[in-house]
């Protein structure tokens, strides 16, 4: 009789304990009807936290890196420089003190290093990042480091999406003369990011146009014999005005030769040189190579 009574009491107490824990224990709350759901973010700033730091060794004419880490809440994502079929690129803008020189691309835009993005193919083809991503830009310091430091401002913007999308913006003040420690979280994240940043396509790879017409062109990329004959390729383009893939936002192939049919709209390039740029990815996760190649006149 006592054993039966104890069993009944135990069975009565367990659900009460679960209900008491439900508001602060998401795992238990998921299994209880009517329990409050985890609050969804109401803004891009709710969904993404941005931290900015300086990494490197400070000395006259030395180069340091401005490092921005985007920490993204679970199940949401932000975008690469070319978001793909939808989305918006993640951007950084800099206000630097006199004498500091930001690294730039050949077209004069800031050279911001992004690691290889994830390719999302859920209905649309997009490129971006989940959980966390660190991007960076190199800055050359002046010949004289002022005693008052080198104050700078970094403005960030991003679009973060799940079922809906939220725009986010941030602003951070930093001192380029005060880098973080070599073993800091920012320095470790930068090292990992640069290890996954695409490198320029080696000269041993051959690229040539098999044809170039007014409205179309065909680029042929040939890998060296060191690349396996059964290698899997993917190509994702940068946003290059006037040049797009006929296959859409992603091209794939097998072997040592990749053929890229292109659609050309010469007026859309405006004053910018007409060129194809993007990332060539071997296998699923790289290595990845970047390249830019001008489109010849017809």
General description of the model:
- With 298 residues, this protein is mostly beta strands.
- It has 4 helices and 20 strands.
- It folds into 3 domains: 1-38, no CATH class; 44-197, Thiol:disulfide interchange protein DsbD, N-terminal domain (Immunoglobulin-like), CATH 2.60.40; 200-294, Immunoglobulin-like, CATH 2.60.40.
- 13% of the residues lie in helices and 42% in strands.
- The strands form 5 sheets. Strands 1, 2, 5, 6 and 9 form a 5-stranded antiparallel β-sheet that branches. It has a 5-stranded mixed β-sheet with strand order 12-20-19-15-17, with no helix packed on it.
- The radius of gyration is 25 Å and the shape is globular.
- The N and C termini lie far apart (96 Å).
- Residues 1-31 have low confidence and may be disordered.
Structural class: mainly beta
Distance between the termini: 96 Å
CATH topology of the largest domain: Immunoglobulin-like
What would CATH call the class of the largest domain?
Mainly Beta
**Number of separate domains:** 3
Q: Residue share in helices?
A: 10-25%
Low-confidence stretches: 1-31
Radius of gyration computed on alpha carbons:
25 Å
Mean pLDDT: 88
CATH architecture annotation of the largest domain: Sandwich
Order of helices and strands: HHHEEEEEEEEEEEHEEEEEEEEE
């Amino acid at each position: 009789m006592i054993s039966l009574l104890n069993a009944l009491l135990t069975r009565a107490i367990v659900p009460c304990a679960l209900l008491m824990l439900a508001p602060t224990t998401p795992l238990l709350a998921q299994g209880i009807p009517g329990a409050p759901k985890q609050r969804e973010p109401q803004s891009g700033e709710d969904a993404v936290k941005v931290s900015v730091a300086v990494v490197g060794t400070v000395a006259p004419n030395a180069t340091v890196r401005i490092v921005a880490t985007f920490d993204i809440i679970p199940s949401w994502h932000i975008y690469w420089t070319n978001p793909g079929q939808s989305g918006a690129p993640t951007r950084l803008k800099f206000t630097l003190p006199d004498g500091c020189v930001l690294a730039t691309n050949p077209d004069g835009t800031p050279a911001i290093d992004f690691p290889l993005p994830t390719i999302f193919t859920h209905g649309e083809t997009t490129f971006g990042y989940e959980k966390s991503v660190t991007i960076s830009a190199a800055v050359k310091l002046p010949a004289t480091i002022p005693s008052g430091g080198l104050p700078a401002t970094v403005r960030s913007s991003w679009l973060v999406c799940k079922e809906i999308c939220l725009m986010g913006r941030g602003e951070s003040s930093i001192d380029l003369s005060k880098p973080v420690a070599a073993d800091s979280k920012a320095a470790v994240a930068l090292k990992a990011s640069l290890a996954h940043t695409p490198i320029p396509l080696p000269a041993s790879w051959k690229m040539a146009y098999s044809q170039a017409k007014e409205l179309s062109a065909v680029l042929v990329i040939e890998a060296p014999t060191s690349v396996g004959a059964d290698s899997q390729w993917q190509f994702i383009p940068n946003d290059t005005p006037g040049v797009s893939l006929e296959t859409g936002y992603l091209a794939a192939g097998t072997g040592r030769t990749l053929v890229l049919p292109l659609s050309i709209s010469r007026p859309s390039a405006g004053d910018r040189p007409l060129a194809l740029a993007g990332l060539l990815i071997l296998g699923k996760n790289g290595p990845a190579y970047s390249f830019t190649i001008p489109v010849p006149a017809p």
